[in-house]
TrEMBL record:
Residues 23-75 form the Acetyl-coenzyme A synthetase N-terminal domain. It comes from freshwater metagenome. GO terms for molecular function: acetate-CoA ligase activity; AMP binding; ATP binding. InterPro entries: Ac_CoA_lig, ACAS_N, AMP-bd_C, AMP-bd_C_sf, AMP-binding_CS, AMP-dep_synth/lig_dom, ANL_N_sf. One of its GO terms (biological process) is acetyl-CoA biosynthetic process from acetate. CDD domains: ACS. GO terms for cellular component: cytosol. Belongs to the ATP-dependent AMP-binding enzyme family. Residues 526-608 form the AMP-binding enzyme C-terminal domain. PROSITE patterns: AMP_BINDING (PS00455). It is an enzyme of class 6 (ligase). The keyword ATP-binding applies. This is acetate--CoA ligase. Its EC number is 6.2.1.1.
Length: 648
């Protein structure tokens, strides 16, 4: 049975409260700009705006441009002033087992002190600050403090190398780096400051004047007198009084670097008023947040856009109580996430399909040991979730009742663009379903003609939205060329998609992950989903390899479930069985030419599969840069396996 034929209607409890959310679609359709102005007015504006959108200099947009606000004030002070200072803002779980809670009053006080410390170090509005930190409360405090003083943060994921760090610092011309001696990961202290020292060595990154260092692990680190400053001294001794100043709605808030097709990272620029409007609106409505009673947990690191929008800004703007954690889900054991949910009675849980599939592979026995009855909404982010993982997630984490919001968005969009609304949408496993109220999308062919239902094509956004990127830092021409040149007046997302017969949207992966086999456009995500639906397969990654006959051929890398193989008999022809299974699920044209059995797939520290490296293997090219992998030895093992002829 096709996944498109599975439907899950809202529960009675959700359906009863869905009327207000359902009306959002009608409001947005009747007056899109008026709808966004109404959402923006949920924030506090020091100077109210009178103009909603100025797109006269397209594709450079201005939202609420004549208004003024302060991001940090909206995330912190206003909740304290409203009498919610005693509400917990952050429940922190460190990997060694330490925990900490910060109320909104306490978090506001710490951010004010950090803002004063930044000012004392010479940071002023418009200056860039690089943040390279573990997932600890000080990371949130640092980001909020930078925003509070009107500076611009560039958060760089703590797993990146010194070279990657250096290139990002130099591109943004950062004046300050905020880091830590290290953090805890995989059961041990992992150093961070040595990478900063290396990045700043030999005269590189001359714009940096100071390095502000949090002592997290207390490991020995080198110290540069006159440059390096202790967080606990600079922030600990700072005044608790700090009045938030208002900045223009289009004042830059952050730069976040993302991979580019040229190999040079793109500094995606987001500004203030529009970004916070949509981050707060989507967080509240997509997750059906009730701030006075929900406990929310997004497992993302602040080094990625999900951590920006759905840890640091959206939840705090909405006055939510949330969990943040340091480390990985397998330390001290694979029950860690579920024990945290049980401990804090987490009611909204947002994570990545890669993690869900990993837990699915390990078996339901682990989460079944814990009381997860507090969960009422589940979320998925980062890539399309295959229907089998969706079903497992709902059954074993959501108790067979919790709706799953399968969210599509990007670093560039700043906030969720396509997602079900819990209680409103009849859910369909594997489909992101419908654009949110206020968002306009279409699926086009290569010539820009709008496609009907059932036809795969290219996803575009047809109207500007508040949280949209405002450019690529220092490179306006690249911004126009990358996102706006393919289809005039429309944002090209770089993703393949199709509307199904019922009008729901299915994401088909990046365009470079959509293969053209004998003139047929085939999605890697669709073939991966078919492979994982077979009981033999725990996880799969599919890439296209050059083929003289068909243009591209399909190569699949699969991790097998050994217990299922043994049950079927160890002499089973796995390759033949899986190829026929894909042919049955999708069609003979989708049969992989080659199936390669591997023990692990190459993944970044955030859990994304590096298909670029698998394409190198499939096309017998030298393996490219592996520095962003969580385990660089994985590619050596895969390459050795191929060299030894161990493939089907």
């Amino acid at each position: 049975m096709s996944a498109e034929n599975y439907h899950f209607a809202p529960s009675e409890a959700f359906a009863r409260q869905a009327i207000a959310q359902a009306s959002l679609y009608a409001e947005a359709k009747a007056d899109r700009l008026g709808f966004w102005a109404k959402q923006a007015r949920e924030l506090y504006w020091h100077k109210p705006f009178t103009q909603t959108l100025d797109f006269s200099n397209a594709p450079f947009a201005k939202w609420f441009a004549d208004g003024k606000l302060n991001i940090s004030y909206n995330c912190l002070d206003r909740h304290v002033e409203a009498g919610n200072g005693d509400r917990t803002a952050i429940f922190f779980e460190g990997e060694p087992g330490d925990s900490k809670q910060l109320t909104y009053a306490e978090l506001t006080r710490e951010v004010k002190k950090a803002a004063n410390a930044l000012t004392a170090l010479g940071i002023k509005a418009g200056d860039r600050v690089a943040i390279y930190m573990p997932m600890i409360p000080e990371a949130v405090i640092a980001m909020q403090a930078v925003a509070r003083v009107g500076a611009v943060h560039s958060v760089i994921f703590g797993g990146f190398s010194a070279e990657s760090l250096s290139s990002r610092i130099e591109d943004a011309e950062a004046k300050l780096v905020i880091t830590a001696d290290g953090g805890y990961r995989k059961g041990k202290a992992s150093a961070l400051k040595p990478a900063v020292d290396e990045a700043l060595s030999a005269g590189k990154c001359a714009s940096v004047k100071n390095v502000l260092v949090v002592r997290r692990t207390n490991q020995d680190v080198d110290w540069v007198e006159g440059r390096d400053v202790e967080w606990r001294e600079a922030v600990g001794n700072a005044s608790e009084e700090h009045e938030a100043q208002a900045f223009d709605a289009e004042h830059p808030l952050f730069i976040l670097y993302t991979s580019g097709t040229t190999g040079k990272p793109k500094g995606i620029l987001h500004t203030s008023g529009g970004y916070l409007t949509q981050a707060a609106y989507t967080h509240k409505n997509v997750f059906d947040l009730h701030a006075e009673k929900d406990i929310y947990w997004c497992t993302a690191d602040v080094g990625w856009i999900t951590g920006h929008s759905y840890v640091v800004y959206g939840p705090l703007a909405n006055g939510a109580s949330q969990v943040i954690y340091e480390g990985t889900p397998d330390i001290p054991d694979w029950g860690r996430w579920w024990s945290i949910i049980e401990k804090y009675k987490v009611s909204i849980f947002y994570t990545a399909p890669t993690a869900i599939r990993t837990f699915m592979k390990l078996g339901s026995e682990i989460p079944d040991k814990y009381n997860l009855k507090s969960i009422r909404v589940l979320g998925s982010v980062g890539e399309p979730i295959n229907p089998e993982a969706w079903m497992w997630y709902r059954a074993h984490i959501g108790g067979g009742q919790a709706p799953i919001v399968d969210t599509w968005w990007q670093t560039e969009t700043g906030a969720i663009m396509v997602s079900p609304l819990p209680g409103v949408t009849t859910l369909k496993p594997g489909s992101a379903q419908v654009p949110l109220p206020g968002v306009s999308a279409a699926v086009l062919d290569d010539e820009g003609h709008e496609l009907g239902r059932g036809d795969p094509g290219l996803l575009v956004l047809t109207e500007p939205w508040p949280a949209m990127l405002r450019g690529i830092w220092g490179d306006p021409d690249r911004f126009k060329e990358t996102y706006w040149s393919k289809f005039e007046g429309k944002y090209f997302a770089g993703d393949g998609a199709k509307w199904d017969e019922e009008g729901d949207l299915w994401l088909l992966g990046r365009v470079d992950d959509v293969m053209n086999v004998s003139g047929h456009r085939l999605s890697t995500a669709e073939i991966e989903s078919a492979l994982v639906s077979h009981p033999f397969v725990a996880e799969a990654a599919v890439v296209g390899a050059k083929d003289e006959t068909t243009g591209q051929a399909i190569v699949a890398f699969v991790i097998l479930r050994q217990n299922q193989i043994e049950a079927a008999g160890n002499d089973a022809d796995v390759s033949k069985i899986l190829r026929e299974h894909v042919a049955k699920e999708i069609g003979p044209i989708a049969k992989p030419r080659t199936i390669i059995v591997v023990a692990e797939l190459p993944k970044t520290r955030s859990g994304k599969i590096m298909r670029r490296l698998l394409r190198d293997v499939a096309e017998d090219r030298p393996i490219g840069d592996v520095t962003t992998l969580a385990d660089t030895s994985v590619m050596d093992i895969i390459s050795g396996k191929i060299a030894g002829g161990a493939n089907d």
